[in-house]
């Protein structure tokens, strides 16, 4: 996966929108030109959106492109970093963070600022290290209730929806050890989407190409451990019937 922040493309926007419950009030953090809020409002998926960005250029583009939504009061544009522009009085149902590196995403989420906002669902698309985001969710008592994978230009992106609460947290149970489940995702390990199996098959083949079972290089151990992980995951993934 690419390491730098990037605005989601159309394919990822469609996958993100599918994770928004109908009639939601949604905050899109780091919105740039508010492409996701436009899609949500024009499709009727959301009743109200707040689009935030730290840069004024993106919000300027959003203002030019979202005239009808702004005029109708269905969209608000706010400038600020992370979740700072959002308040409890906004009545948010969903917060979206997409196209950000995992470390930045976790910094924005902080010590569970979404709970301070009474947000019922987080929709997250990290550019890198989805395991880091899953670990944050687990540590802060969120469960992943939906997760999908999208491939663009040979890069695979995990997109997940997470909710707080005991029922949601129970999703962390699964056929693998917890550390393995964090690597693959508690929903993806049950997925029959062929892309998920292809992702782990590609990773297995890549690692088999660099594995040195008889070598004593410093990378040999970690490579072997990762290779064994891919085999455990592939053994548990269901085949599409």
The CATH homologous superfamily of the largest domain: Vaccinia Virus protein VP39
Mean pLDDT: 90
- CATH A-level architecture of the largest domain: 3-Layer(aba) Sandwich
The helical percent reads 40-55%
Tell how many strands the DSSP assignment holds: 7
Proportion of strand residues: 15-25%
Query: What is the distance, rounded to the nearest whole angstrom, between the alpha carbons of the first and last residues?
Result: 29 Å
CATH class identity of the largest domain: Alpha Beta
Model regions low in confidence, pLDDT < 50 over at least 5 residues: none
Indicate the CATH topology of the largest domain. Answer: Rossmann fold
Helix and strand composition category:
alpha/beta
> Can you summarize the main beta sheet?
7 strands, mixed
Total of DSSP H or I helical runs spanning 4+ residues: 11
What general form does the structure show?
globular
Number of domains: 2
Strand neighbour order, sheet with most strands: 3-2-1-4-5-7-6
Task: Spell the H/E element sequence.
Answer: HEHEHHEEHHEHEEHHHH
Rounded radius of gyration (Å)? 19 Å
């Amino acid at each position: 996966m690419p390491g730098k922040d990037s605005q989601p493309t159309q394919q990822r926007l469609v996958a993100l929108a599918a994770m928004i419950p109908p009639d939601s009030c949604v905050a899109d953090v780091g919105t740039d030109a508010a492409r996701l809020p436009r899609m949500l409002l024009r499709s009727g998926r959301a009743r109200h959106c707040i689009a935030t960005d730290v840069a004024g250029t993106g919000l300027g583009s959003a203002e030019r492109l979202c005239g009808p939504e702004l005029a109708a009061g269905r969209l608000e544009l706010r400038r600020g970093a992370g979740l700072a522009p959002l308040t409890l009085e906004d009545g948010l149902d969903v917060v979206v963070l997409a196209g950000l590196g995992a470390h930045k995403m976790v910094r924005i989420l902080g010590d569970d600022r979404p709970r301070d906002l009474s947000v019922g669902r987080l929709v997250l698309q990290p550019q890198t290290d989805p395991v880091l985001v899953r670990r944050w969710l687990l540590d802060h008592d969120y469960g992943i209730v939906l997760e999908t994978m999208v491939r663009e230009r040979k890069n695979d992106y995990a997109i997940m929806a997470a909710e707080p609460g005991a029922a949601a947290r129970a999703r962390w149970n699964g056929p693998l050890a917890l550390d393995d489940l964090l690597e693959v995702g508690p929903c993806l390990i049950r997925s029959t989407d062929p892309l998920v199996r292809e992702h782990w098959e590609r990773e297995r083949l890549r690692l088999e190409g660099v594995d040195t079972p008889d070598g004593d290089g410093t990378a040999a151990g970690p490579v072997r451990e990762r290779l064994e992980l891919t085999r455990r995951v592939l053994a548990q993934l269901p085949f599409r019937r």
